[in-house]
Amino acid sequence: MKNDFAKCLRGFFTEYLSAERGVSPNTMRSYGTAFASYLDFMKAKRKVEAEKLTLEHMDRKNVLDYLDWLQADKDSSVSTRNQRLAAIHAFCRYMQYEDVIRLQQWQEILGIKMKKTIKSTMNYLTLDAVKALLEQIPQDIVRSRRDLAMLSLLYETGARVQELIDLRPVDVCLTKPCYVTLFGKGSKKRIVPIQDAQVTILRKYMEENYLLELRMNQRPLFQNGRGGKLTGAGITYILKNYATMARNATENLIPDKISPHCLRHSKAMHLLQAGVNLIYIRDILGHVSIQTTEIYARADSKQKKEALEAAYVDVLPDIEVKSSWEKDAELKVWLKSLGK
Fold it and tell me: What are phi and psi of 22, to 5 degrees?
């Protein structure tokens, strides 16, 4: 049937995801990107324009070829591939009840497995590295003062980049006790306290941009040149520029790969190393489960080494250490005789 794909896709997003499931804007955005990418694939590799797509075009072979195309042609990571597949799986679960005639087609796609990912070492900065990074931001330029307020707050709160993007002036309290209100995954709200030095930077930035005025309290806290929200890619670009400057100014402090999430990891590690309880770190980061937060304890090799050293009890017997073979004349003579 002509346009049945477009009709079902609209129902999936508006009736199912939004109205029935109430998924977060981030999930909607991620799923939208996945299907836009699938349309690109069908046009590039199958020569089928978006307006001519039907449900028959979404079968197991096309989906598998699409996933391979993502990695081979688009240089996407395994993680991105799995995110795109998750969106397609969600659509197929929905379609099992909307289009029972093609039930086997949907179940064949649902049978496509996620690829295993290799867990990489957690990337985080030392305290000296964070300080060196923020010191690169000049304070004599209006936009740079925004960058300082933004990146320092990203570290201070351990916020996800989307949580930072969604911040509004109304979410910031600059009277004691000072804090910001973050809205995390599933629109869960949490309050994160901020220290005096951060309050000073933030207040100066907000005063300069009239963001303390009542009429501005629903605007984005950190804006692009057009007064709209920044994007995750935009914040990553800004961070990488200052990281490059810090890398040139210091030795071996700033890793080659850095992202906004690296600052979140850094804050968590620094809290852990300062002796803050994992329960409090979980609440600051907005983790649902303490098991997610425990990755920081497992990753901190220095803390593990210190804990082992503190708990060490000498129970091993003393072993007599013989002299080195290099000083044993008879052994040296015997070794030299070998092969003669």
Answer: 60, 40
